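Extended Data, panel c. Modelled sequence:
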Amino acid sequence: MKKKIMALVAAAVTASMIAGGAVSASGAGETVRVGSLKGPTSMGLVRMMDEEKDDTDYSFEMAAAADEIAGKFTSGDLDIALVPANMASILYNKTKGNVQVIDINTLGVLYVVTSDDSITGIADLKGKTIYSTGKGQTPEYVLNYLLDANGLSQDDVTVEYKSEPTEVVSALTQTEGAVGILPQPFATAACKQNENLKEVCDLTQEWDKTGKGTLVTGVTIAKKDYIQANPGVIDDFLDEHEDSIEFANESTSEAAELVAAAGIVEKAPVAEAAIPKCNLKYLDEEEMKTALSGYLEVLMDQNPESVGGTLPGDDFYYIEEED
């Protein structure tokens, strides 16, 4: 998406921003504060993060836990946040509609990792103990949905939830034949560290087989009042975010160096191997709405609390009005 604003509109917006003390990502003003998770969502930002060292008006903050980013966003310490898709819906409901999704930045990133050669798909998980992170979050909901879609119940597997992906990796290393569900880039890193481990099942592909929309992992949000006060900031951010995601996908080697430098992944070769599997994807407006609304409906059917009790209204999706 490349936003095109006519000169007259741009002048009016600029005047309004100056009068109201609003910020501008492309001009003088306050810094636009962006928060993201240490993982794929931040990988899609690395070009923008690198340019932060130059003369830009963005500041970036990474966190390991989604709750930390959500807390800083709701308290007003962040202007734009990259969060799990279902968390965006929860925040929308908590703020009584004062949150909008401005883009989708990451599709599915979950993989089944094991040394057990008998596992090639979801149906093969019957009777297995699975180590995973994300209880009450995307990994749990995705796994439960895929089990059901493959004729299995939650009683057919034993899931042990860990607090960090590194704990899942430890369980896979210490227990022969153990099965784990890991997000990228941890899945790639685990397989690099232990040659016996393999990514045997891509949960995004398994989701696609069900015909129920698109598996969405990460979205970008801002508060509705912030968007209304700073339309130029949002448009500039979206243009640059799209370019940054495109850079990561097309210039993988160069992006991997930036990912390692930012501390998202320890080593550039691991980052380079992981980026193509991270499903970094920029979707906005109607395409964003179609993908995300379908995904949230699946979560709602499983557990209404996973989306904050109710599905968001149409105002949840930032769609620029045509002039």
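The CA atoms of residues 250 and 276 lie 9 Å apart. This feature is highlighted in the accompanying rendering.
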